[in-house]
Design a protein that fits this description.
mainly beta, globular, 59% strand, three-stranded parallel sheet, 71 residues
């Protein structure tokens, strides 16, 4: 909460993404994403696969702090 999260995942990496944030945004590779994106009032959720998905999983939840997955 209250701090931006930088994960620095390599461009082109394949993984399953599950993120939720309130009063913030999620920055992820949207061009390589397949799944569900929801934005309601102050809440944003992203659930699906990036670059085809793999057994790797990224789960991030935040309040008041942005989430940055890419370098």
């Amino acid at each position: 909460s209250y701090a931006t999260v930088y994960l620095g995942i390599e461009t082109g990496a394949s993984y399953q993404l599950n993120s939720s944030c309130e009063f913030c945004t999620v920055d992820y590779p949207g061009d390589d994403f397949a799944g569900k994106r929801t934005a309601e009032n102050t809440r944003q959720t992203v659930e699906g696969k990036v670059a085809g998905g793999s057994s790797s999983k990224v789960t991030v939840m935040s309040r008041f702090g942005n989430i940055r997955l890419v370098k």
